[in-house]
Structures are given as C-alpha cells and as structure tokens.
Amino acid sequence: MDGSKSKLINSLSKLKADAVKAGLTLTEVEHVLLAKCSDSAKREGHASALAGQGSGEHASGNSAGSRSLPSALITVFFRFLIPLLLCSAGALSCLHYFGHLSSLTGILTENPCLLEANLLLVEISRPIEKCDFCEGLTSFPTYRDISREDYLDIHAYTGRPALIQEGGTKNWTAPDVFSVKFFQNLYKDNERALEAQENCQFFPYKSGIESFEEFLNMSDEKADFKEEPWYVGWSNCDTVIATELRRHYTLPHFLPEGSESSITDWIFLGGPGHGANVHIDSVDRPSWQAQIRGSKTWTLIPPPECEHVCHEINATMVKGSVIVVDTNRWYHKTDIHPGGISITIGSEYD
Ligand SMILES: O=C(O)CCC(=O)C(=O)O
Ligand SMILES: [Fe+2]
C-alpha cells in the first residue's frame, strides 16, 4: 500500500478502536460519520459518491461517484463530531483522539486526493478484526487442485484465501469465447440489459472510460491497447445475460455443496500496467474469481489491527487459475502483467 494511504488507514483504524474502547458501538461511530457525510454531500450534489452501496473503492467507481469529499466536511467530522462523542465518554480516549486526529488531518491536508476513494468511508464502518483469518500466513495458500472437503475445512468460511492453479476451470469454454467484442455484442442493442445495468456497478478505475456505455462503444484500436491502456470492471445485473455467461463456465467444483453463487457475475478486464487500487470491500460474502485470459497478481494486505500477527501476501493468477478471497476482510489490489488482455469472471458464494 502506498505510504499516505496506509498511514491514513492506520490512523483511522486506531481512532475507531479508541472510540469503541470508550464505549461507542461501531454503528454509533458509523452513524455519526456517515450520516453527517451524506446529508452534507447531498447539499453538494454528490449523493451517489457517498451512497456506500456496493464495495469499497467499487462504490466510488460509479461514474457519478468519483468525487472527493469537500474538505470542509472532513473538518466538521474530525474537529467537532468525534471529539464531542469521545470527550463525553472519557478523558483518556479524548486525549488519544486528539493524537490520532492530528495525524489524520495532517495526512488528509497533505493528500486531499486520498478522499476520492471510498476507502475512508468503508474503513469507518468495517468491524475490528480478531485476526484469526490471517494469523500466521506468510505466503498465499496455493493448490494445483483442492477437494471440496479440504476447501470447506480450511478456506470456505474462515477468511483464509486460496489460489487453485488448475482444477477450478475444467471444461470451461469461456477462454475460447470471452473477449471485449464478445461482451460488446452481448449487451449492445439489448435495451433491457442496458437498462438493468443502470442499477448495477461499473468501475472505471483510472481508464478514462467513464461509463459502461462508453466501454461498449470503445473502438477496436482502443480495445487492442493501441491507444491509452485501460482497465474496467462491472457487475452484471441482467438475468438473460447471466444465463448466457454461465453457458461458458460452471461453479468451481470445490465450493461447498449447495452453496449458491450469487446470480451477480463480476467481470474485470483490461491491459498490462493497470489494475485495481488498494481497497477493502463491503460485500455480503466471500468471492471467487477465475482467470480466463492473461495474468495478474493479487496483493492482500491485513487490516492495521492485525499487522502484529499477519503479513502482506500475494498470488499470481494465470489462465485457468481460481482465487478465493474474503474481500471484506483483506485490503487488496491487483496488477495486470505484460502480455495481453486480462479477463476474469467471478462471483460471491454463500
Ligand atoms: O480483479 C480485480 O482487478 C479487482 C477485483 C476486486 O477488487 C474484487 O473482486 O473485490
Ligand atoms: Fe475488491
């Protein structure tokens, strides 16, 4: 994680822990911060940036949502609201608060663009972890294939990630079929699907492609990276398209029996040199993701309260591998490798 971001997250994490020690519930902390935030944001016309639905940086990726919080708002939260709550709860935490506050406001003043990410908002409401999900992991658990029993025992609901190199995508036709053109043709001229996508998520990252429609209308030259490189992701909200996508893949065999993969598929694709910035999500369940074409590295970073027992770990996916990550608990980022387009498909499972 880059220095400013990690300092910011650390400060916020300590601040939150102090607030909880002082007797506030997480919901109270969240309520004060986010409720105030969205009221003022509406006045500023930035409601969608702060709606908080969806997943961390993902939520900020909505085309209407990549806005920064007005700095006046930050001043209001940190200068007045938290001190009021904490100082009424106890003098010691009040002192702690001012320590963390000054480092936090310092970081934000020097790096106002940090606020563009929803990182701050997700960090505020994220539960404080007990760290058993990451404790002792010094490298990414990796398997050529894994049985359902082992997967259930070790990974399914423990938050411990896994990389399955070969066994998860047998007999899929997706690698022969999925391409930019395939996705463009699938949605184009399909009014119902396009309408459904309006309520779904699109993440432009730093691609300059501001909307799903713009992605669909991208020229062949741009799609082939003959112009600026790009990287985007979206969730599919149309059931007919979901059925079409699922003709080309099946659920990885090791997922728990009877587990229902969410009907929402997540597709991420784009070129070398790009990827998703560090973020943590606020989705309902753990996620799996399969690499259809190209190669990318996932870096998982434990939350600050677990740094004393947990480590950053990473895994490189190549065509045919499947990764499983609880993206609500691990901060994560991805980097696409040189050598052509990276295409992944994935979903959540219960
Ligand atoms: O695949 C990527 O580049 C990012 C995926 C991600 O952030 C997620 O699935 O939560
Ligand atoms: Fe994510």
UniProtKB/TrEMBL annotation:
Taxonomy, superkingdom: Eukaryota
Pfam families given in the database record: Cupin_8
Gene3D superfamilies to which the protein is assigned, alphabetical: Cupin
Presence of keyword Protease: no
Listed transmembrane segments: 76-98
Keyword set includes Transmembrane helix: yes
Keywords: Membrane, Transmembrane, Transmembrane helix
Family annotation (InterPro entries): Cupin_8 (IPR041667), JMJD6_ArgDemeth/LysHydrox (IPR050910)
Residue ranges of every copy of the Cupin-like domain listed in the record: 189-310
GO molecular function: 2-oxoglutarate-dependent dioxygenase activity
Record's protein name: Cupin-like domain-containing protein
